[in-house]
Amino acid sequence: MVNYEIKNGIILLAEPFMLDPNFRRATVLLCEHSPEGSVGFVINRPTEYRIDELLEDFPEFNSIVYQGGPVEMNTIHYLHNLGDLLEDCVKVTEGVYWGGDFDKLKFLINSGLVTPDNIRFFVGYSGWDEGQLMDEMATGSWVTADMHPNYVFKTQADELWQQVMHNKGDVYSVIATMPDTANWN
Question: Rounded to an integer, what distance in angstroms lies between the CA atom of residue 69 and that of residue 28?
Fold first, then answer.
């Protein structure tokens, strides 16, 4: 039996041969997990859009929006490292917070107190109904890993899945070197 612990603040890595295009080589930060369900954000899928291009009343801000997952693609979410500077946010793990007072966020951006290095915006999210994530774990769809704030704020998105796999060590270091597209002879 596979031993894993699902909790807020862990990374879910899509197993290397996952066929679902929404999660192929995805690195998901799990932000909320309870018996009722789970919510997370794919942190390695940048889009071509900036947040100030998607929201009319948003200050000019050179921050790329990421595709957080296939659920509610008409919503905007954000992860940041501002902590209590942004009231009403939820601490996901050390150095990573979710949401908070949106009007204050805009004020902090206008004041130059928040830079793109402090925050990641997401369109949509990844969600699992009651028991769904546990079922996917049992079938080997996901590999869990410890979270580090640099994964969200510093690591290049196109290298993240491989880096987190490599950081797990052992057999995962070998998996990290597998090409994204395998040719079957």
Answer: 9
pLDDT digits (tens, 9 = 90+) for 52-85: 999 999 999 999 999 999 999 999 999 999 998 9
Residue 76 to residue 51: CA distance in whole angstroms = 9
For residues 15 and 173, give the distance between their C-alpha atoms in angstroms, rounded to a whole number.
13
Q: Which residues pair with 3 in a beta bridge?
A: none
- Domain 14-176 part of CATH 3.40.1740.10: yes
CA nearest neighbour of 46 among 31, 30, 64, 28:
64
Residue 2 has pLDDT above 60, yes or no: no
Give dist(CA 185, CA 183) in Å, integer.
Answer: 6
Q: What angle do CA 60, 97, 124 make, to 5 degrees?
A: 65
Q: Between the CA of residue 26 and those of 10, 55, 58, 93, 146, what are the distances in Å?
A: 14, 26, 28, 19, 15
Measured distance CA(52)–CA(34) in Å, rounded: 33
Q: What is the DSSP letter of 78?
A: E
- What's the CA gap between 89 and 96, in Å, rounded? 10
Place of tokens 């994204």: 180
pLDDT band at 96; cut points 50, 70, 90: very high
Whether the model pTM is above 0.85: yes
